[in-house]
């Protein structure tokens, strides 16, 4: 896909840029790392999956082009180290992609485990906050940068769990605030809201939610929407490429839905069965 996109535009859209991508060992982050490198970027693959991250870094050309760092985004020193590696290895940071995510199984509200909530909070929201914080630390002196955060359709409507819905909603606020505060430093901040994307995280979608979705007309409708199917991670990687590149130089504080029109479904698709 990256090859096709490059062939269509005829240009390397991230030549000379350096990106940190969290959650880059799998799914959307992995596909985005491949796309960014295909467009000339150097990337830091930041993830907790060491073997997969190291393997991807080798596939993408090794230390001259891509480096893996063990990074648990819920730990500030890990996030700071990933950002610092972009500077020490490649001379700066132009793109911060806060993408790492977990989907802790949902349950009725009254049975919410605050331990599980805190785990989601650490990765989905605190991890992104620290990504913005440390990206700003390095990008401000450079007077340039693009911060991208993976939100979700669950940042706009009810998603598969209370924690996921609540924390994904908060990413829109974080991004709008960052876009506002960093505007004078030529640093942009945007979110991408994927719909259903075929990646390993889908195995964690709560069974009751999947059953409700399957029982409703949601899936058939997806097939007749613009996406024709549940999309692959390349759909999000290409959106990230746009937001990372200078093609989106005047776009900041925005959310880009990449959901095959999911959020335009009339009524409540979960209650139509
Ligand atoms: N797949 C979808 O349908 C979908 C829809 C909307 C939003 N999203 C979001 O997209 C993002 C990427 O998810 P994906 O679909 O590629 O799933 P994925 O499971 O393939 O990738 C998630 C990655 O995050 C990493 N990760 C988990 N906890 C981490 C931590 N503490 N520190 C660092 N890395 C950690 C995992 O190791 C994994 O590599 C997530 O933020 C997810 O919420 C996915």
TrEMBL record:
GO terms for biological process: lipid metabolic process. PANTHER family: 3-OXOACYL-(ACYL-CARRIER-PROTEIN) REDUCTASE (AFU_ORTHOLOGUE AFUA_6G11210), NAD(P)-BINDING ROSSMANN-FOLD SUPERFAMILY PROTEIN. GO terms for molecular function: oxidoreductase activity. This is Uncharacterized protein. Keywords: Lipid metabolism, NAD, Oxidoreductase. The lineage of its organism: Eukaryota, Viridiplantae, Streptophyta, Embryophyta, Marchantiophyta. Belongs to the short-chain dehydrogenases/reductases (SDR) family. The keyword Lipid metabolism applies.
